[in-house]
Amino acid sequence: MTGRTQPLHSVSSLLAEVDHVLQRGLAPGATVHPTGFDALDATLTGGLRSGELVLLGGPAGNGKTTLGFQLARNAVAAGGTALVFSYEHEAHTLLERLISMEAMESFEGAGAMDSFGISTAADVHSVRRAMEAGSGGASLDELLSSLPGGREAHATLTGYGDRLHLHESSGATTTLEEVSRVVREVATCDGRPPLVLVDYLQKIPIAGTTEDERTTAAVEGLKDLALEVGAPIVAISAADKEALASGHRMRTHDLRGTSSLAYEADVVLILSDKVDVVSREHLVYDLGNVQRFRDWTVLSVEKNRHGRSHVELEFAKDFEHGRFHTRGNEVKERLIDERVFTT
Ligand SMILES: Nc1ncnc2c1ncn2[C@@H]1O[C@H](COP(=O)(O)OP(=O)(O)OP(=O)(O)O)[C@@H](O)[C@H]1O
């Protein structure tokens, strides 16, 4: 079922409604959008649910946009729809990341690795260079065909392109009301609510004297929208400056603005570089670990209304191709609260 109709129900009316929905061949529970990351889906008992607000936080440059955008891509690759509000990146920048991501996915799908076991699918830089150089009049397909995996990426994007919507949002004009209008428009056009990504929460222009007031209004507005439209909304959240400067591991209470962030959210995910948060004993006795851990990101499920919380998962970075590897595990090493490296 999507969206809220009326607030008051008797259990009898609910039973009748569920029966009616079942007889139409539909599912009466929430719509589950798998994240495409098996370890995360297992923790979230299936994935992200309609009506849920998911907060995604972490220090700058740790991959929040990359993960959020990959969640949107995975939703459409699995047959769903997604809508990305990007206050930080132009649509073309996201498109370049997407082309590289799909080139790499196609290489992996085909098992196309060179003799060193390293794939040579076009990275984001190559895609950007090709776009900036132009094609001298040749078509996009011809341009992309000159890049490893580019032709396959183009075919994949053409396949799901109608279901992935990118909104170049503005800190001046893309208000909560505008976000709400666009989400409804896309839901109507696509015939079902999309997975929504907001990158990022504190950029939504909202009246209010303090940052706490503005952030509270933003999370409450997004949570209401998620419930009304029946969409999962993933909102990236910036960290408090003090949290970043003090050299400790970032947690939910370090998200910028207010404690209401944690109350309103159904799921809170925090990204950290593994090398920053692993306990010191794993570093001092094996220096090789420092380099290995730099390649991994820890995704902490700090709040989870539908399953276990305080779960620490890890995923390998592949930022050159604008993505994380989707195969991940629970972290085996002991993690700390204080960061080892503060740079
Ligand atoms: N083409 C690329 N090749 C390699 N690394 C890249 C490339 N583009 C971006 N990166 C790196 O990928 C990382 C993740 O970028 P992303 O935009 O996802 O981070 P973020 O957490 O959203 O950052 P911010 O908080 O600054 O918006 C960054 O450290 C960035 O330097």
From TrEMBL:
Keywords: ATP-binding, Helicase, Hydrolase, Nucleotide-binding. Residues 26-331 form the SF4 helicase domain. GO terms for molecular function: helicase activity. It holds the Pfam family DnaB_C. InterPro entries: DNA_helicase_DnaB-like_C, P-loop_NTPase. The keyword Hydrolase applies. Coiled coil: none annotated. This is DnaB helicase C-terminal domain-containing protein. The lineage of its organism: Bacteria, Bacillati, Actinomycetota, Actinomycetes, Micrococcales.
